[in-house]
Structure to design on (738 residues):
């Protein structure tokens, strides 16, 4: 394909995506507050459209600039916006409720807007970003972390509604959020999705670390995989407690929130410890 | 010859106290008999009788509305005695546009005892079916009812007039579904088989829970209610195992002290591995100890909480009344567009205009094939042809007896055949789409603090 056309398409999508996210988020906001039929009908098609165009945008960037779009903060933000939207789509599709889209799509809109404003064509980037194995590894890591974040958001919504139901407050939260057990299911499904992606991330990371052991000999004492495995274990225990021991409701939500807090703390701690993605692996 | 018009004679919760409404209520058998008499006595062209616990109304089509009104009152007196449905304060009469508007308001839930209650739409449908069976409904009522159902459906789908629970039992179910989205895998325990317990049990049973347990101090009453609703009777003096099994506990007893004590609830929650438990307390004094609400994953809702929800929902419904009134007016307008089409003069005029338009169009297309001196002949020939073709149909149409249902049907058929439909007029009846909201017998809920349903 002609490079000029591809570049023009990338620029067009880069401008278009924040607007589409804004429209999709607006449809979900109106649907949440007003039960407007038009807005309700618009939510799903808008969501699908924005996912397709965003996927096309990321694919074009990958093909055109010949690296996974995770090489800069702006690229990480657009990939994260995409991941949040995809995870939300999965949850909406599985549970059949669209009343929580407002909370997730607003995040995607903000991330994509910042990304679109500051993103640029990277002239120089590490060779490792060209590796497909690395692409799947980091891609699934972004999806996994995003799914845990989505799970935490549903957990917070669950606690808000729980609090209102316990204290007999029947305001906007009561009227517009789905039921407690649906919120709990959404939180759990997102967490399970995150667990699956994190499993892929850890497996591929281990394989990749082994294959590249000559270039990165410090891999086995890298705090990032160690903290990731700890987070994985916490979420895995949560899944076992639900599916094996019948834990439901507030306890599972607390578990999900604990897992997410651990995830955030571990990321921050590791970033303080090492300024790169992995020990000995300088990708800024 | 005067155009027939709609007359409504009736009484409702707006004008008559419950005992009067009760005395005036027609059973389906009485409705059939009244329709049979009305048909035989040939005073009313078309008739429908809507009789529920909150209203008894006769919708009649007649070219002599005054006579129709007195005939309906006389007919009612044959069934119910002369005093109640006389010209006294209990009854009312609406004619023409007001009568149509009244029916549409009833169908839209604006005239219900509980604003926006949509059960009435199902009851109107039942009344219409009886009218069809008894030969009371003709073209006019078919169209009228199609428009009424459309008004009701639009009110429900385009506004929030029917949204939110407005009875204690439905508020209890609504609150419960905010905790469990689906009751099909949940068990409901109802303690107390009195009127309140029965009603709430019926509401929960309609959600098709995985299990319905009924408990009562007198086991026979529990057994009877359980067998009626497809549930099981559980012992009143050993409630603990039932509370452990249940996800929802409805208490409606006259016990002087709490039945669900803090200790019982605490032990039950331990046994249930903290699965959420909803306690709906409909009793005065309360059946559920106040401290039970402090337990994790236990949600306790007493009467005052349910009342708050009902009032919130009612006030939201009130806000939508202007929108529903606008829908009613829109449907009334459309209906009268159609009704006006059932007059001979406009039909004849439109028929002639249609033929003339066709003639002009054909002349325009083919005139250039004729010489200048031939064109006058062609013009005269085609005009004469159209006049001759229309002479007999026009004479026949002018002779239609519009005071009979047959005349109206013929006139409507002429419009159909020659495509003289009026744009935006009420469409023909295409079947009913009243999903849910039918009580069957239209009996009141009888719950304290609220009115019966229409």
């Amino acid at each position: 394909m002609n490079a000029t056309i591809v570049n023009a398409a990338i620029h067009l999508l880069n401008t278009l995506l924040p607007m589409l996210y804004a429209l999709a988020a607006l449809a979900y906001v109106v649907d949440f507050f007003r039960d407007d039929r038009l807005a309700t009908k618009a939510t799903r098609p808008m969501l699908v459209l924005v996912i397709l165009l965003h996927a096309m945008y990321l694919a074009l960037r990958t093909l055109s600039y010949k690296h996974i779009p995770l090489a800069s903060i702006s690229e990480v933000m657009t990939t994260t916006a995409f991941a949040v939207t995809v995870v939300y789509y999965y949850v909406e599709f599985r549970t059949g409720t669209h009343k929580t889209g407002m909370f997730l799509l607003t995040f995607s809109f903000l991330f994509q807007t910042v990304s679109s404003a500051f993103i640029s064509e990277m002239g120089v980037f590490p060779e490792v970003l060209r590796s497909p194995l690395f692409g799947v590894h980091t891609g699934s890591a972004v999806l996994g972390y995003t799914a845990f974040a989505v799970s935490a958001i549903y957990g917070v919504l669950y606690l808000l509604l729980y609090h209102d139901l316990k204290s007999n407050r029947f305001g906007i939260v009561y009227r517009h959020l789905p039921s407690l057990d649906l919120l709990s299911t959404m939180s759990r499904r997102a967490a399970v999705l995150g667990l699956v992606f994190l499993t892929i991330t850890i497996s591929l990371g281990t394989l990749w670390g082994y294959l590249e052991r000559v270039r990165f000999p410090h891999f086995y004492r890298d705090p990032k995989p160690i903290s990731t495995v700890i987070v994985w274990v916490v979420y895995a225990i949560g899944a076992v407690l639900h599916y094996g021991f019948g834990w439901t409701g507030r306890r599972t939500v607390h578990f999900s929130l604990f897992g997410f807090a651990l995830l955030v703390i571990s990321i921050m701690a590791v970033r303080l410890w090492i300024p790169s993605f992995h020990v000995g692996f300088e990708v800024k | 010859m005067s155009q027939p018009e709609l007359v409504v004679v009736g009484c409702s919760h707006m004008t008559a106290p419950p005992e009067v409404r009760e005395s005036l209520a027609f059973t389906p058998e009485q409705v059939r008999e009244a329709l049979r008499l009305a048909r035989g006595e040939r005073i009313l062209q078309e008739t429908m009788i809507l009789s529920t616990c909150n209203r008894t109304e006769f919708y009649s089509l007649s070219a002599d509305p005054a006579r129709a009104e007195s005939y309906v009152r006389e007919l009612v007196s044959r069934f119910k005695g002369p005093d109640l449905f006389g010209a006294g304060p209990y009854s009312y009469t609406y004619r023409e546009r007001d009568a149509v508007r009244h029916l549409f308001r009833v169908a839209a839930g604006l005239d219900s005892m509980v604003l926006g209650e949509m059960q009435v739409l199902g009851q109107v449908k039942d009344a219409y079916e009886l009218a069809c069976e008894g030969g009371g409904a003709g073209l006019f009522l078919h169209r009228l009812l199609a428009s009424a159902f459309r008004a009701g459906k639009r009110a429900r789908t385009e506004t929030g007039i029917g949204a939110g629970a407005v009875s204690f039992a439905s508020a209890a179910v609504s609150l419960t579904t905010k905790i469990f989205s689906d009751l099909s895998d949940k068990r409901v325990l109802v303690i107390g088989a009195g009127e309140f317990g029965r009603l709430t049990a019926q509401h929960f049973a309609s959600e098709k829970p995985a299990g319905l347990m009924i408990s009562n101090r007198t086991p026979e009453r529990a057994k009877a209610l359980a067998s009626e609703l497809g549930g099981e009777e559980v012992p009143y003096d050993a409630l603990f195992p039932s509370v452990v099994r249940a996800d929802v506990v409805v208490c409606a007893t006259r016990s002087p002290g709490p039945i669900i004590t803090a200790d019982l609830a605490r032990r039950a929650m331990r046994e249930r591995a903290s699965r959420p438990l909803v306690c709906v307390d409909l009793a005065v004094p309360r059946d559920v100890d106040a401290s039970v609400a402090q337990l994790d994953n236990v949600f306790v809702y007493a009467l005052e909480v349910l009342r708050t929800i009902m009032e919130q929902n009612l006030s939201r419904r009130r806000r939508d009344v202007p929108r529903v009134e606008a829908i009613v007016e829109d449907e009334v307008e459309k209906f009268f567009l159609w009704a006006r089409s059932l007059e001979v003069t406009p039909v004849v005029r439109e028929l002639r205009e249609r033929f003339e338009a066709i003639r002009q169009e054909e002349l325009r297309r083919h005139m250039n094939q004729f010489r200048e001196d031939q064109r006058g002949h062609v013009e005269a020939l085609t005009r004469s042809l159209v006049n001759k073709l229309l002479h007999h149909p026009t004479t026949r149409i002018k002779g239609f007896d519009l005071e009979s249902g047959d005349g109206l049907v013929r006139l409507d058929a002429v419009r159909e055949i020659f495509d003289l439909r009026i744009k935006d007029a009420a469409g023909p009846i295409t079947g009913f789409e009243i999903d849910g909201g039918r009580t069957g017998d239209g009996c009141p809920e009888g719950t304290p603090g609220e009115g019966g349903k229409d």
